[in-house]
């Protein structure tokens, strides 16, 4: 994390362990439009720094085996905000074309009768991800009653 000039604390970047760097680079590039800012290709030490508009956002480290486990301590999910629900739906279309696994069918509100909402899915290693917009969700019943949608998927 970094401290902005006005004293506010902001997130610097998120680092993720992956099993296949090439596969993850293709996924994150296609879904989020990330560009590779730097990459290590040394055998046994593969990594990539991904960003947009010159800002580092995600780092990938090929140093794990198996699949992401939501039952162990660590990352719960990684969330990305877009401006509009149209953008969320466009990303959902891209993810469907890639064969991504969704936690819910389509856009769901973050909570009961909430205006914010998004899509919940996994990357190729099973890491739980979210793309949401702050407004525009159908204020229908949330898929998880009495709790934030992003908390129990």
UniProtKB/TrEMBL annotation:
Q: Which GO terms describe its molecular function?
A: dioxygenase activity; lactoylglutathione lyase activity; metal ion binding
Sequence ranges assigned to domain VOC in this UniProt record: 10-134
The protein in question is named Putative ring-cleavage extradiol dioxygenase
| Segments passing through the bilayer | none
SUPFAM superfamilies the record matches: Glyoxalase/Bleomycin resistance protein/Dihydroxybiphenyl dioxygenase
Q: Which CDD domains match?
A: VOC (cd06587)
PROSITE patterns reported in the protein's UniProt record: GLYOXALASE_I_1, VOC
Entry keyword set: Dioxygenase, Metal-binding, Oxidoreductase
């Amino acid at each position: 994390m970094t401290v902005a000039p006005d004293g506010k604390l902001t997130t610097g970047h998120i680092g993720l362990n992956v099993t296949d760097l090439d596969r993850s680079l293709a996924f994150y590039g296609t879904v989020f439009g990330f560009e590779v800012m730097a990459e290590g290709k040394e055998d046994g030490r593969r990594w990539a720094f991904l960003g947009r508009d010159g800002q580092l956002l995600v780092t990938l480290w090929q140093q794990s085996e198996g699949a992401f486990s939501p039952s162990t301590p660590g990352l719960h999910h990684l969330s990305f905000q877009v401006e509009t629900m149209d953008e969320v739906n466009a990303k959902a279309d891209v993810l469907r074309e890639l064969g991504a696994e969704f936690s819910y069918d389509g856009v769901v509100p973050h909570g009961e009768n909430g205006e914010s909402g998004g899509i919940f899915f996994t990357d190729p290693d099973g890491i739980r991800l979210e793309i949401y917009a702050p407004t525009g969700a159908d204020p229908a019943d949330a898929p998880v009653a009495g709790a934030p949608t992003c908390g129990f998927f």
